[in-house]
Amino acid sequence: MALSINHNLMAQNVARNLSDHYGSLSTSTQRLSSGLRINSSADDAAGLAVRELMRSDISTLNQGIRNANDAISMIQTADGALQIIDEKLIRMKELAEQAATGTYSSDQRMIINSEFQAMSIEINRIANATNFNGITLINSINPDFDPMSVQNWEQLNQSSFNSPDNITTNAFENYNGDLIAGTGNATGGEIWAYDGTQWSQINTDGFGDPNNTTVYNTKTYNGSLYASVYNTASGSQIWKYDGSNWSKVNTDGFGNANNIYSETMKVYNDKLYVATRNDATGSEVYSYDGSSWSKVSTGGFGDSNNFVTLSLEEFRGELYAGTVNNVAGSQVYKLSGSSWIQVNQSGYGDTDNVQTQSLTAYNDKLYAGTANFSDGGSVYVYDGQSWTQISEAGFGDSNNDYIENVTMFNNRIYASTNNSAEGTQVWAYDGTNWAQINTSGFGTSDNVYANGLFVYDNQLVAGTFNSTSGTQIWALDKIENQNIKIHFGTGNSSAEDYYYVMRSNMTTGVDGLNIQYLDIRTQYGAQHSLGELSSAMIKTDTVRANLGATQNRLENTISNLQIQSENLQAAESQISDTDVAQEMTSFVREQILTQAATAMLTQANSMPKMALQLITG
């Protein structure tokens, strides 16, 4: 190597080595001070990508653990409320047992019943008030659902079910999870089942007889589906469906051809009750115990002008019936023991109220919808003592001459009308005001009335009469978010990352427990209440058992998540963390080399002086 002044190659070489060693020393210092082997993508590009994904999974899993712990707290809140409801049910059953014995007078039963009803009200209050972070737990009503504003309606079927003769839908029922709809058809009534996606006809037209023109009602009884059918020739027929086959279970017209059809059926006291139209001697009521029929009323309840019974409903443990009477006005009767007792003033005080189209019991009151061809139909409410009109006649439009249906949905009363001018209307009642919640006729005046109004799969369903394009079935916006999703995994797979607390199965207010109508002011009512309360306790305890099982599952989920998070953290540590012993060795080595390079650079920088000595001599 030549001795030169312009280029000090030794110094350059040493400076390069010093820079390398100093850079390595800086990296070691950073790793030792941060505790991380990877501080930037330059340290290990692939390792950085793996580490960040692992970090996201670890953070997500840890939040999932917190989610699961929150769910346990929520379940414990629900279980605590259900424990109190259990205590109330036990007390109610004790009171029912007390009132069921014959050693108490009616006045004493009235006193016992006051505490009984107080327990019922308290159950409802607890169910409505129990919430976790604003989420209702044991009452599945969606607080965000506004029943008083116009909602979106969706047509569920193709008009007329592809047969233009299907002009009306009269019968709705929930059978084995399917929505059942029965139609009126001049060539024979049809029964259709809807599984949430598509409709399938489950009977032959008219059950093989074209005289069976209309399916008026369907009802589930003892696990089978029953249908009442209008036979224009021989009288009302009742058919039974076991899931595969249909069979007729009564003689035509119950042995009397004047019983031309049965528009209403009701399961009451472990029997199926059917009421007929009989223009000759008045409507008749029959009960069926699964093997034979018994007549349980005189014709027209003693007044032959009561020629049709359009509605049957259970209220406070007794069966109520609403009639059509074009002379004196509609009459409402209750079955007390073996006798029918009239409980309203004929026509509710107005002889123009000729029909009681619908009866529904809700919140310890009985609601009735009437037909009035003068002023329009009205809705009346019965508190066990007197009837009160709670709607303007026809809701302000005399064309609404029928209140076709009154039903309960989402803790509100709903009513549908017959309106031949504009089309059927659906109204909601919030306890003070009524509001129309559909466009009249669902957009066409040909939908004259909604003869069916039914609750299915958290939706209010209406079936129309339409002689032009055929019957239509409409459903109100579905109430969503019934069940509470507990999410704990890092993805969105239902098999791995979440499951539900089934809030829709937790409805344990008096409606959900089916004890809203119980009353122990009579010995029969008390005896009937015992069985209903036992069923209510079974449901409550089933809910509690399911909650307990879910809580145990969540605790196991938390243990699994903790182990998974721990193992991921260990794997992430192997990739990301500094091995201090190894890094300290590197640090000392680079520190020594840096110091040596610094010393050598000093020596190398003095080398050009040797050339100067040669020049100066």
Topology:
Layout: H1 9-34, H2 45-100, H3 106-129, E1 131-132, E2 135-136, E3 153-155, E4 166-175, E5 178-185, E6 191-194, E7 199-201, E8 212-221, E9 224-231, E10 237-241, E11 246-248, E12 259-268, E13 271-278, E14 285-288, E15 293-295, E16 306-315, E17 318-325, E18 332-336, E19 339-342, E20 353-362, E21 365-372, E22 379-382, E23 387-389, E24 400-409, E25 412-419, E26 426-429, E27 434-436, E28 449-456, E29 459-465, E30 473-476, E31 484-487, E32 498-501, H4 523-576, H5 580-605, H6 608-616
Antiparallel strand pairs: 1-2, 3-30, 4-5, 5-6, 6-7, 8-9, 9-10, 10-11, 12-13, 13-14, 14-15, 16-17, 17-18, 18-19, 20-21, 21-22, 22-23, 24-25, 25-26, 26-27, 28-29, 29-30, 31-32
Kindly state the percentage of residues in helix.
25-40%
Average of per-residue pLDDT values: 89
Q: Structural class per helix/strand content?
A: alpha+beta
Largest sheet: 4 strands, antiparallel
Helical region count?
A: 6
Q: Indicate the CATH topology of the domain at 53-138 and 498-571.
A: f41 fragment of flagellin, N-terminal domain
Text of the CATH class of the domain at 53-138 and 498-571: Mainly Alpha
Strand content: 25-35%
What's the architecture of the domain at 53-138 and 498-571 in CATH terms? Up-down Bundle
What quaternary form is this?
single chain
**CATH homologous superfamily of the domain at 53-138 and 498-571 - what is it?**
f41 fragment of flagellin, N-terminal domain
What is the radius of gyration computed over CA atoms, rounded to a whole number of angstroms? Answer: 39 Å
Bulk shape: elongated
